[in-house]
Design brief:
The protein is built from six helices and seven strands. By secondary structure, it is α/β, with parallel strands linked by helices. α3 packs parallel to α4.
Length: about 180
């Protein structure tokens, strides 16, 4: 019963991994996709640091570095999102064959993106594995407070969400700052 955690090293995928371990799911691999440029599917900034995070939690990391990311110029988000998923799915199929017991499930840190959630669920269906998405449709503020209460240190390295501007870059959040409006 091996589980794989989709892991960018960001707060959401780290929290999903943490919650999976709390639940007793046997996460045997972390999988990080390193997209070139912007991505509809993946966390982009600082994925090169995922290896350090994986080392610190003692779980082997599988890097997915698709050569053809962004090769297809398209303005259609759906087409690009599907194309971005193909290298991940191929890596998971390979990992399923290499692990003694195969893959039983994957953890994912999606919070609000139906775009990401539906594609990951479709991929999981094709691979015949379960999905553990403990953040899905949860209140972002409550998630942040729970992460901080658990001892997570959250530093803002990119702003791409509504409500945050560039003045947030480099800030490290604490419980007091998460309770401000």
């Amino acid at each position: 019963m091996a589980w794989v955690s989709l892991f960018s090293g960001g707060k959401d995928s780290s929290w999903a991994l943490y919650r999976a371990q709390e639940r007793g799911l046997p996460v045997e691999r972390l999988v990080t996709v390193h997209p070139d440029g912007d991505s509809y599917m993946y966390h982009v900034p600082a994925t090169e640091l995922a290896g350090l995070a994986a080392e610190s939690v003692g779980i082997p990391l599988v890097d997915v570095r698709p050569d053809d990311f962004g090769a297809e110029e398209t303005t259609d988000a759906g087409t690009q999102g599907d194309a971005e998923l193909e290298p991940l799915e191929a890596a998971l199929e390979d990992l399923d064959a290499r692990l003694d017991r195969g893959i039983t499930g994957i953890t994912v840190g999606a919070v609000e993106s139906e775009f990401q959630n539906s594609r990951v669920q479709g991929m999981a269906d094709r691979l015949e594995v379960d999905v553990f998405a403990p953040l899905w449709q949860r209140n972002p503020r409550e998630l942040g407070e729970a992460m901080l209460a658990a001892g997570f240190e959250i530093t803002i390295i990119r702003v791409a969400a509504g409500g945050l501007d560039e003045s947030w870059l480099g800030r490290t959040l604490g419980l007091a700052s998460s309770r401000r409006s």
